[in-house]
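Query structure, 74 tokens:
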């Protein structure tokens, strides 16, 4: 189920976004070898980006049972 992001969700979304870049290193187009190391975003950067775009929406996708955040879309 999609639902609007609330401020308490920001740490979970940041963690999910940063994990999205951590995949298998190897041959193929899904390798991250060319990407810089470290975090891709932070709580402060995400909050700043959201505040600069008040017309934009960030939605979270939650699984049905325990309401874990599975993904997000802007």
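Result returned for the query:
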């Amino acid at each position: 189920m999609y639902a609007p992001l609330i401020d308490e969700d920001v740490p979970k979304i940041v963690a999910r976004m940063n994990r999205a870049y951590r995949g298998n290193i190897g041959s193929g187009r899904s390798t991250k070898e060319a990407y810089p190391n470290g975090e891709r975003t932070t709580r402060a950067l995400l909050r700043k980006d959201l505040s600069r775009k008040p017309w934009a929406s960030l939605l979270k996708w939650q699984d049905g049972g325990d309401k874990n955040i599975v993904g997000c879309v802007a």
